Structures
1.
Amino acid sequence: QVQLVESGGGVVQPGRSLRLSCAASGFTFSSYGMHWVRQAPGKGLEWVALISYDGSYKYYGDSVKGRFTISRDNSKNTLHLQMNSLRADDTAVYYCAKDPGSGSPYINWFDPWGQGTLVTVSS
Amino acid sequence: QSALTQPASVSGSPGQSITISCTGTSSDVGGYNYVSWYQQHPGKAPKLMVYDVSMRPSGVSNRFSGSKSGNTASLTISGLQAEDEADYYCSSYRSSSTLVFGGGTKLTVL
């Protein structure tokens, strides 16, 4: 079955960087777009970024544009999120999620989601 | 302030039906049939319940149904069960290659 396992979360100081990873299994990773979605403690969901199946195009939410970079390594079935210039309001559980297709710019739905990794930005 | 508006909470008794609304604009809910609904139990990852306004993924009970009228989408849960108690989020594609969520609705089964 499809499995997504995030890692790399932790406590980081404001202004510093952190890199998240998501290990995928149970499907042909290189054929599907992938997303990052986050959820601040006690708050709702926020879409963060999309990468197409081959990494040729990427889209970002306004709150992370210019600071976060989504990437993928199809040889290792792994998705990444490089987060720079972190701020307190980036504190959240970060989920990776599978796109239903190759990663159309008409972002639609996500299924399944990983279990998430917590990022805490605090001095 | 979330991009899509949902009621903060709804409740119902076992066996009853409830409906959760999700209101957006013509740039998102009203403009595209790309509305989805997710169920999230405490401490768990969200689970897709409805996509493309009214489609159900394999394995999701037919007690869950989605619809849309104008700028408002709705999720209806019929025959409420205790395990339906959870948070529910709607989402929609929004023009310029982005996706927006609702603020979430807490469903309480009385």
2.
Amino acid sequence: NAGVMQNPRHLVRRRGQEARLRCSPMKGHSHVYWYRQLPEEGLKFMVYLQKENIIDESGMPKERFSAEFPKEGPSILRIQQVVRGDSAAYFCASSPEQVLNEQYFGPGTRLTVT
Amino acid sequence: DQQVKQNSPSLSVQEGRISILNCDYTNSMFDYFLWYKKYPAEGPTFLISISSIKDKNEDGRFTVFLNKSAKHLSLHIVPSQPGDSAVYFCAASAGYGQNFVFGPGTRLSVLP
């Protein structure tokens, strides 16, 4: 059973470009969470999605950031018009329907904005 | 406003001794707590959890203690091993299915 997959592992974007981060949850998991870790800080919750639904996006900036988890395919975190402050490690976690308190993390995508 | 605090950014311990990592929280609604371990360039991996109905949970070399009145929990690792060297995050949630709030982490170094 493969773990949570994230790609790309490293992403470099120039200011103003778009960044797309992908997350494939563990098999059988229908809940996905996105976290951001800034340098020297802990993980900050961004958004919680279930298949085709956003459950909680209270941690996500109102502008430029969006997330989706379609019926088919991976969850996507999209950052438009990236700025230097978006440089961070973005982690995705997934959990099964029955045990929402168990979150399994992917290896993360390190976004660098130049 | 940091709801989950880990006031020690780093900790060094000799191999074979006990490592104690501390975590404090401010939100009295938190009722479920986890510890994650994170190696460089990897995602966090789940270590151990505790719910507010308990004050201790043990799993092998890892024990988590919860003091609800003090809003404090700690992770004990004994005996510590060099492979335990990692960043440890404390996380808390305010109910089943609620998102987790993470502390800033403590970097543990176990010296051989």
